[in-house]
Amino acid sequence: MNTVVTSKEIILEASKKLIREEGLNSINIRSVASACGVSVGSIYNYFDSKSELVAATVESIWSEIFHNSGRPFVCCSFVEYIEWLFENLKKGYQKYPGFFALHSMNFSQEEKPRGQQLMQNSWQAILQNMLLVLQKDVLVKPDAFDISFSPEKFVDFIFSHLIAALVRGDFDSSTLVEMIRRSIYLS
Fold it and tell me: By CB neighbour count within 10 A (0-12 exposed, 13-18 middle, 19+ buried), where does 56 fall?
């Protein structure tokens, strides 16, 4: 058995593999140490507790799903970006079964704010990207938005539907895409 892990990334990859194979509840210091072939103390060199390990793994999965896709988000229309988000959520849902529903529940009561903050950080990045793509989309009607119906409110509305689809496990974006086209695009 190795006594030292060569990097934090190796630990996170082993943690993500455990989630794929056994679910989020399988993550703990001992199981990850075993998966890495190292001593428990080696994991503690990188993470002070199980909750820190889980939090870093959750953050890594969200990043993998939305930030490491290889596709720059500014190159497409808003509709294409929404379709891309749905596709990435579907892939993440399939790759990490149960992750979306369980990750916030895997923190103890005193650690829940940390788990919620990680989720909020990931979601805020998605919302910012959605708004940026919307603002750069040349197909959006010039009068599509006003003070009472701002781009920010529209993005929040679309994002809430995206999260609802995620909870339902429904990754068919066609209805939402059609609604977007009718609402904000030139005829």
Answer: middle
CB contact at 8 A, 134 and 140: yes
Distance set, CA 74 to CA 67, 123, 129 (Å): 13, 18, 8
Phi-psi region for residue 70, left (φ > 0), alpha (ψ -120 to 50) or beta?
Answer: left
pLDDT for the residue 1: 56
Mean pLDDT of 25-52: 92
Distance of CA 99 to the CA centre of its chain: 10
Q: In the chain, where are the structural domains located?
A: 8-48, 57-184
What are the φ/ψ torsions at residue 94 (nearest 5 degrees)? -75, -40
Question: What residues does 185 pair with on adjacent strands?
Answer: 140
Q: Which residues of 16-29 are buried (b: 16+ CB within 10 A; e: fewer)?
A: bebbeeeebeebbb
For domain 8-48, the CATH class is mainly alpha
Confidence of residue 75 (pLDDT cuts 50, 70, 90): low
pLDDT at 111: 56
Structure tokens at 97: 């079964």
